[in-house]
Amino acid sequence: MRAGKGARAGQYIALLGYLVFLGFPFLWLISTAFKPARELAALHPGWIPRHPTLANFRQAFDEQPLLHAALNSLFAALGAAVIAVLIATPMAYVMARRRTPLARAATGWVVVSQAFPFVLVIIPLFLILKNLHLIDSRAGLVMVYVVWALPFALWMLVGHVRAVPAELEEAAAVDGAGRVRTLVSVTAPLLAPGIVATALFAFVSAWNEFFFALVLLKTPRKQTLPVVLTHFIGAEGVADLGPLAAASFLATLPSLVVFAVIQKRITGGVFAGAVKS
Amino acid sequence: MTLASATSRPAGHAPRRGGARRPPDHGAWFLVLPALIPILVLSVGPLLYGIALAFTDSQSGRTAPTRWIGGLNFQDLLHDTLFWDSFRIGLLWAVGVTVPQFLLALGLALLLHQELRFRWLARALAIVPWAMPEVVVGIIWRLVYNPDAGVLNETLHDLGLGDGRDWLSGLGTALPAVIVVGVWAGMPQTTVALLAGLQNTPRELHEAAAMDGAGAWRRFLTVTWPALRPVALAITALNLIWNFNSFALVYVLTNGGPGGRTRLPMLFAYEEAFRYGQFGYAAAMGCVMVAVISVILAIRLAVRLGGGEDT
Q1: Between residues 39 and 98 of chain A, which touch chain B (CB distance below 8 Å)?
Q2: How many domains is chain A partitioned into structurally?
């Protein structure tokens, strides 16, 4: 890439603009989380807390059942990730390797399921789960999250299966290995990183999910983190900014860590595969 | 070691040659069923049930049995000006977010594709809004817009641009303020998709064009854009749909206020269903939303067929 000095400078200025736009809200969250109440109430609070404090975090835990909410979120996200990947992997394998009508229908469902408004699904689900006495239950939420995570999990996994050359499997078959043996000793090891990335992505999606949790969970002690976070915002929209920021910061950390781990796979894998097929 | 013993059974078959035709395989069903059953029971089934509900007077907490009322809900919807207001706001929001989001993301993707220093920092930061729960994105921007302690008014004050205002409560400023948040929140996905598209464009073509003396703008039009077009169309169609259906962000930011100025269709349907218990009516709203989305998908499909692309 050849670029003149002026163009280069322009590029760096643009990059700086993007950095500020993308970064400053997050920095403001951190800054607010560590500011003592007195600085937050000041007429012109500065960028950097003058007397950083952890008081907001303590107050956040006092005001809302944050620990419970985090455990509920962990349960829902882990359950959804593990179950979704367990059932999606075999199906993705079939979708990737065979051109049956069923595989095509499944691909169509993956596309369509990205498009319909959730309200059309949540009302019937609400009624069904109510009849099964699974409203306000963590198990019911996990069930919903599994199905909600499936389209994307299938999408990612189909791409990963396609990346494993079918010739390897055929070679193993020629060597006399059976179907199961081929899958376990040839395909699975090559697929493992993709399965882990998919599970982590499903985990983050469920950890961050709000709408289904809002509708399905009523008891405060059963609610997940995103729902509990909204309780910090009062009915009048007035919020205790410090604890709100502290709790939000904590709720974001797990997703950030997971995203940092799988970032390369997301950038490379998901969209290249998703957009090509 | 159960796996090893399981493998001894298929070994009885004659070894298959590579690429040889296989007999119809009923084993595949066992691989598909664990996912297929939940999909049918918890996704396809409820979707059809939801469409059926739109033709009933289903309400929560009512003792009388639900009755089939034909198109009555849709007739009511036709005259529900509040719904059409929210519908208009939904379209305004979807387009208002998607277009600037695309342009900004395109710029960022082109920058990140260059050999720039601190590129890694921008890449990392560009991911942050994506990794965050939507609720937290809403909360962060409430902090930014906060009339007393918000960084926006603070900055305006420092620049001597007046004392600012309550952005999210102003009748005129609420929707634009919320749209800015939507742009910010959705930029990562769009940037990443476009970046993936850029990485698929052949570098040699670029170099050849540069040798021929084509300027940056010309190279973009003749080399980059044609290669990027399929990705750009796909992500734009998805963004329009996702944005039209969005809920959490605006629920946290304004909850539809002030005076319904940011009440997206999903917020309206949610209130109708879970605050007023009008399940049938809310389902009808969902159906109308699906109809609009189908139009978007149809346009996208028409573009694809018309352009003769193999996306």
Answers
A1: 40-42, 44-45, 47, 86-88, 90-91, 93-94, 98
A2: 2
